[in-house]
Amino acid sequence: MRLPDIRGDVRRRDFLRWLAASPLLASSGGLAGLEPLIAQEAPRRVFDELVDRAGDALDVFDLQRVARANLPPAHYGYIMTGVDGEETYANNRAALERIYLRARRMVDVSALDMSTTLFGRAWPTPLVVAPCGSQRAFHPEGELAVARAARSRTHLQTLSTVTSTAVEEVNEAREEPVWYQLYVNPIGPRSWDGTVALIERTRHAGCPVLVLTVDLQGGSNRLTAERYARVDERDCRSCHRSGGRADPVKPMLRGLPGGPVDLDAGRGMTWAYIDKLRSVTDQRIVVKGLVTREDAELALRAGVDGIWVSNHGGRAEGSGRATIDALPEVAEAVGGRVPIIVDSGFRRGSDLVKGLAQGATAVAVGRPYLWGLGAFGQEGVERALDILVRELEITMRAIGAPSLQALGPHSIGVE
Ligand SMILES: Cc1cc2nc3c(=O)[nH]c(=O)nc-3n(C[C@H](O)[C@H](O)[C@H](O)COP(=O)(O)O)c2cc1C
User: Fold this and answer.
1) For residue 247, how many other CB atoms are within 10 A of its CB?
2) pLDDT digits (tens, 9 = 90+) for 309-338
3) Which end of the chain is more exposed for a tag (fewer CB within 10 A), N or C?
4) Distance 366 CA to ligand 1 centre (A)
5) Which domains can be identified in the chain, with CATH numbers?
């Protein structure tokens, strides 16, 4: 086999195409020396370099590889990190991969209805954009690029408390108020007055739903992020304070009233906090981060409007159970009384089907769209969303489910 001339204008991707076809690769076991820094990632493949444009990405992992190449290590590490040795992150994926689909044949799937309804608002698909902080770290347009993508594809977008873009600007780009995710002390406002002011701002901006995240009360041990930060040799002082941590003053936290630290919030938070929120807002309240039947029951008793089953994408507790394994008991406890959103580890349309079959009203993704953002900005986010929706469409037709209502526990199985 003759080697191509890689000194001249033959492009690197042509060389890689040649290499992919070469028996040399098969015998050497892959591209030695290009293993990822952290074991949780998909290994580099020889086809990585064939993604030049968003439209070239065939699955969301193609976007992940481009994002890894584009982003500074510390920022990519912030996306990827889970906690401890990444067991919760791995459990999320392993459990989804263990479940198989039970395909039914000879069902008329010529018309496909993927729509779902959340609080009276119908969405064409059940795919939701999860709240993720600091998106300008992944692309200069950050949350605005995500909002434009969510608008062009009509997806529900949830904005993080620690957004790097103000809610008013995001709502304008989304052309519809987003849902607002609420952190309280210590990640969000430290005082109750600060929380009230923040809520009032989101209410004034038209956000119909507050998503109270309750899974980081104990902090989180994000070792992967630390490891990536250590290999990042850039001078980060123009954006970060000394010590390398992100500037804690985010647009939504700037200028909030101070006062005594809210002892009911953060580490002291209990179910009574839902009443406290109710006393200051008429927005719907969804609680994010539940993974047990017991908590689902307590949440309903506390009067929440919706439940978001999540382990923060493996970023909260270590040794956590996969959310797809937690979902059935939560769905049973809820009994259809309030909508359920599930996230953590969903990467393919078939994964979405598995969540919907077990009682989720909608499925959210975090990293897949952040990879798209880091890879190609708005177009990358659109590509990530399009891939997942197309895969969902193919899977629903393939298993004979013309609508989400046709999905149920009978649609899946575990060996
Ligand atoms: C980089 C990053 C930042 C995140 N920031 C927040 C946040 O500010 N608030 C929140 O409730 N969840 C946050 N999450 C968790 C997501 O909302 C979501 O639960 C998780 O990403 C879903 O898992 P997946 O990334 O495997 O799809 C973040 C996740 C990532 C990856």
Assistant:
1) 10
2) 999 999 999 999 999 999 999 999 999 999
3) C
4) 5
5) 1-30 (no CATH), 80-414 (3.20.20.70)
